[in-house]
Amino acid sequence: MSPRAGNAGPHTLAFVESPVQLLNVLEWAHAHAPGVGLTLVVLSPVDPMTRGQLRRMSDLARDEGHEVRWEEARGGPLAPFQTIAGLTGVLRKARRIVLGDPFSRYVQLLLTITRARDLVVVDDGTATMEFVGQLARGERLVRWHRKGGRPGPRDLIFAPVSSSARRRLTPGGRRRVEIFSSMPMEETPEGVTISANDFAWTRARFGPPRITKGADMVGTSLVETGVVDDDRYLEAVRALAAAHGATRYFAHRRESPTKLRRLAVETGLEIVRPELPLELIARRGPIGRTILSFPSTVVHTLPLALSGTEVRVAVCDIDPAWLTEHASPRAQGFLSGVTGAARDVHRLSPGSSENPTGPGTVPGPATTTAPPSIPPPTARPTMTGPADATGAIAAG
To answer: 101 with 21: CB under 8 angstroms?
Structure first.
């Protein structure tokens, strides 16, 4: 057990379903409960990439002295019932609950069982911004990329549980609610305590990184969530990589293997599937002097994790023409807000075609010229091998 933490116990219980949530629980513990171990419950998903990152993050949590409880929460039709039954005892004993995804039906159901009076919500990416706004306005909890559509049958069946969870996440009486976040907050729910996540644990444990001369690109799952058209996304990646001399593409854990293979073939980028959240990969290095991204969580988190280094983060806006016909009416405004609220980043126009003065250089004022047509390379796609200095693993 790490000397930095005490004995893990039932007083603080954390629920996570993604590597980023687990990272932010570690950041919260470092900032608000130093030297105190907590019990961290991993509600494991079925996606192999996410499971792999969660396994590695769990090892880091154990190194910090926390108890990790791995639950095969989606391992079959009876798994949810078995998981909830097994957690009921610790849920009722816990004095504080830390959770990463208030939109999760699993977490909402668990909230109906707990008697804890202290609730802490840590970042689950940009969705935290939407959660805070909905809580402040008293709206039902709906993920931003689904907002505007009609509730489905499952939504209607689960509505009472969701409403109960929203009430539990609203402070009142002896119940306290904290939001620990690196995201900008335009609205603050009444009575909610907001505390800043500046990635102090990440910076203390890793780095500083070795910085290369080139540029790296960060992938997004906007295609997989049905927001952005596949072909438009590929063309945007190809043009952006060519304009800035990018050589590596750090894939989002939810990006499909088919899309990634196509990106490798048609752009010549080396596809890297990280074994840890990108904030840790970037901090460990090596990392490009410029990091290119579309609107996503990393435009807020990477400048914090890489504070004190010479790395620059540049974000390319999503052109409305890239959106699919199935995209939520809320999508464009939300994505623009993610970019506009980001601090310490360079903003790029989706149509910019200015050539940089050197690899990794962010261009000057963005133009609205259409991106040049770049023929796909003839070279075979490059995939990462076994874990290297970046902490990447092979894309299987």
So the answer is: yes
Q: How would you write the pLDDT of the chain (396 residues) with one tens digit per residue?
A: 343 444 444 489 999 999 999 999 999 999 998 888 899 999 999 989 999 999 999 999 999 999 999 999 888 888 888 999 999 999 999 999 999 988 888 888 899 899 899 999 998 777 787 888 888 887 777 765 444 455 667 666 767 787 888 888 888 888 899 999 998 887 788 899 999 999 999 999 998 999 999 999 999 999 998 999 999 999 999 999 999 999 999 999 999 999 999 999 999 999 999 999 999 999 999 999 999 999 988 999 999 999 999 999 999 999 999 999 888 777 777 787 777 777 777 888 665 544 333 333 333 333 222 333 323 333 333 334 333 333 322 222
Distances (CA, A) of 295 to 125, 131, 335, 338, 368: 11, 17, 6, 6, 18
The pTM of this model reads: 0.81
CB 27, CB 197: distance < 8 Å:
yes
Query: Torsion angle of alpha carbons 27, 331, 278, 4, nearest 10°?
Result: 10
Q: Exposure pattern of 287-311 as b/e (b: 16+ CB <10 Å)?
A: bbbbbbbbbbbbbbbbbbbbbebeb
Containing 69, the helix (H) or strand (E) segment is: strand 67-71
Number of H helices, E strands in the chain: 12, 15
Q: Which residues of 341-359 are buried (b: 16+ CB within 10 A; e: fewer)?
A: bbeebbebbbbbbbeeeeb
Quick one: the chain helix, strand, coil %, rounded to 5? 35, 20, 45
d(CA 205, CA 280): 9
Query: Could you write out the three-class secondary structure of 295-350?
Result: CCCHHHHHHHHCCCCCCEEEEECCCHHHECCCCCCCHHHHHHHHHHCCCCEEEECC
The residue behind tokens 């930095």 is 4
- Rounded Cα distance, 209 and 291, in Å: 14
What does the DSSP 8-state code read for residue 374?
-
Q: Measured in Å, how far apart are the chain's first and last C-alpha atoms? A: 34
